[in-house]
């Protein structure tokens, strides 16, 4: 396979889309679309633009919930990813419902089949990567919609219909993994 060197500002090679939700200092529920995340055991890491509304609040140590949407929520994903939380809460306009988390002071998104409640434990910013903030969180609890679980309470992988984000910084977008 012949390869050509490219000079892209970014390279998203297909990351699962999440909706990160949290309360601001006034108790208003906020939600934002992101795709830079990974988790191992009870640790989760989220990457944000340092100047963004969500990064500013999470850097302050705000609890948060990582919500995993499915393909039926692509309009909500697009809406939450195209507007700043500084303009106000995006929940209602995106057709989403905040619901109190049982384990952290952050709202979950009722419509998402998976919600992972987290606490900020570390904020990582480096001179090597200016403008990037990594939020390291401890996973406090995980919740999965009943119809996504089998009789033994294990995740039914075939029920998942995740959305991925891919692109080169100019050409970019969301893609349903079940699209043909």
Automatic annotation (TrEMBL):
Ranges where the Flavin reductase like domain occurs: 11-157
Enzyme Commission designation: 1.5.1.-
Enzyme class: oxidoreductase
Pfam family, any one: Flavin_Reduct
SUPFAM superfamilies found in the cross-reference section: FMN-binding split barrel (SSF50475)
Keyword terms: Flavoprotein, Oxidoreductase
Example GO molecular function: oxidoreductase activity
Domain of life: Bacteria
Cofactor: FMN
UniProt keyword Membrane, yes or no: no
InterPro entries: Flavin_Rdtase-like_dom (IPR002563), Flavoredoxin (IPR052174), Split_barrel_FMN-bd (IPR012349)
Family: Belongs to the flavoredoxin family.
Protein's name in the database: Flavin reductase family protein
Native source species: Paenibacillus timonensis
High-level lineage: Bacteria, Bacillati, Bacillota, Bacilli, Bacillales
